[in-house]
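We treat protein structure as text, and this decision shapes the records that our systems exchange. Because each token names a local backbone shape, the row as a whole describes the fold. An entry from our holdings is shown next, in its original layout:
>
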Amino acid sequence: MMKPMIEATDFRDAMSLLATAVNVVTTNGDSGRHGFTASAVCSVSDTPPTLLVCMNQTARSHDYFIDNKMLCVNVLGAQHEQLSNAFASRLSSEERFEQGSWTTLATGAPVLEEALASFDCVIEDIQHVGTHSVFMCRVVAIKPAESQNGTGASTDNSLVYFNRAYHYVGQTEQAQFA
């Protein structure tokens, strides 16, 4: 007995209820500096440190990521909602990178100075699944958030996307336990 086909809209509606971190993923190299907003990012392994990043094959910067063979995942804080929107818009690459302050680590991919964390990666493998490319990325450098409260932990809230809207997750006060 054949199972009924799942409609793409039904799948997207259900996935909108999966809260995800918001990231700006960047690259730089012979193909230039480019970036996009992504929620499809996750940890694969800590030995070796590896991330999975998904990107729509029709995205205008898709081929640049493949050509450059490196990327940086910049985890956004609550204050980065405008930056997320800029990297998801039709702005040119130059206009996108006018938002925020940028530096680099090992690969030369743009690193957002104010990111909660930045994972500088080499793309080691690419799988094509449906409409997307799945990048398997070996992490070669990490820039954690700057300490803001003297405890080594950032006080920023994380920017997440849930039910087609931005939300903020985090705790600005240290939990008190008796």
